[in-house]
Amino acid sequence: MSAKLDPKQKPPDSLKALHKSYQKISQDALAKDINVKDFGRVQEDVTAPRVSVVTTLDGSKLAQISSRFQGCEGDAEEPKNVKVYECVDLPDSHEFSFFDILPGSSFAFPAIEPSTHAPVTVAQFLNRKLRWITLGGQYDWSKKAYPEGNPPEFPKDIAWLIHEMFPNIRPEAAIVNVYTAGDTLSIHRDVSEDSDAGLVSISLGCDAIFIAGLEEESTGKTRHIVLRLRSGDAVYMSGPSRYAWHSVPQILADTCPPWLSHWPADTSLQGTEPTYDARFEAWRGWIANKRINLNIRQMSK
Fold first, then answer.
1. Helix (H, G, I), strand (E, B) or coil at 123
2. Coil, helix or strand for 140?
3. Cα–Cα distances in angstroms (integers) from residue 142 to residues 120, 139, 145, 214, in the given order
4. How far apart are CA 211 and CA 226, in angstroms?
5. Residues near 30 by Cβ (< 8 Å), separated by ≥ 6?
6. Measured between alpha carbons, how far is 24 from 286 in angstroms, rounded to an integer?
């Protein structure tokens, strides 16, 4: 199916208008908007049309997966079952972090095309407008295609984590989007992969408005859903939704969970005592007004 879809095709006007309408909506209006599915809302009606519970992920298993991924037993709060809803040039060290570089450092990432783009410092990368990092397969944004040849190896720890939670996908490529309040992601489809396996999208930090829609070939009409994604939410786009148009019209400022807001200086887990890391003190609170989105996909069949 992906071979029949053009990655450069323009999205439907109706979805562009929907995206635009949610770019400026206030948080008060958003909280009252019954068309937005918000699974963090206490009185959310999960039996409403177009959304239904299809399975439940065992909380104990999720806790085991999380602990193994972090390399610790973990003593966070009691795990809860998670319902799955269906919508109808750096140091060569695995321990190195961007946050090891002080905000005022002159260290800069050189541009691939220095004649066109200037170098970017770590502070510029982490603090200003939408940025992204690619893992595994290196997507060419200009050509909207993956380069030929074998891609770099996908991080084994993240691949294990995703496959444990979503066994039907083999993680081979990912885009890590780093948003700041005020950033948007325009409407697009992910159709360059030679695989029908689902897409996994995981959110950390501030809340975001997420729109997904499908256009009926016979009538040209669109069906859509608007979600409020909170820190820790995961979206799995499979079946017809694998090729759905989707966008992020708004990042909601000041919505990062309090227990996470001092990261990376505070690396404690939810429900545990603060654990301070002096190594990253200069970046304390960086995530408080950020949203990190990890979008994982399988490239080949």
1. helix
2. strand
3. 19, 9, 8, 25
4. 5
5. 22, 36, 209, 228, 252
6. 24
pLDDT of residue 206: 97
Q: Given this model, what pLDDT does residue 87 score?
A: 45
Write the DSSP assignment of 226-237 as a string of letters.
Answer: EEEE-TT-EEEE
Which two tokens mark 230?
């909170």
How are beta strands 199-205 and 290-297 bridged, if at all? antiparallel
Provide block-wise average pLDDT over 10 residues at a time, the chain (301 residues). 71 93 94 88 55 77 76 57 51 69 87 81 84 87 81 91 92 93 91 90 96 85 92 92 93 94 83 80 94 93 84
Q: Could you tell me where the beta strands, DSSP code E, fall in the chain?
A: 36-37, 51-57, 82-87, 108-109, 120-121, 131-136, 173-180, 185-188, 199-205, 208-215, 222-229, 234-237, 245-251, 290-297
Phi-psi region of 175 (alpha: psi -120 to 50; beta: other; left: phi over 0): beta
Of the candidates 105, 109, 139, the one whose C-alpha atom is nearest the C-alpha of residue 125 is 109
CB contact at 8 A, 19 and 186: yes
Number of H helices, E strands in the chain: 5, 14
For residues 13, 15, 18, 20, the Cα torsion angle rounded to the nearest 10 degrees is -70
The pLDDT assigned to 159 comes to 93
pLDDT for the residue 130: 80
pLDDT of residue 90: 47
pTM of this structure = 0.83
Beta carbons within 10 angstroms of residue 191's beta carbon: 17
Q: How many residues would you count in the chain?
A: 301
How distant is the alpha carbon of residue 44 from its chain centre? 23
Alpha helical stretches, state H, 134-205: 156-165
Identify the CA nearest to 254 among candidates 181, 194, 202: 181
- C-beta separation of 138 from 152 below 8 A: yes
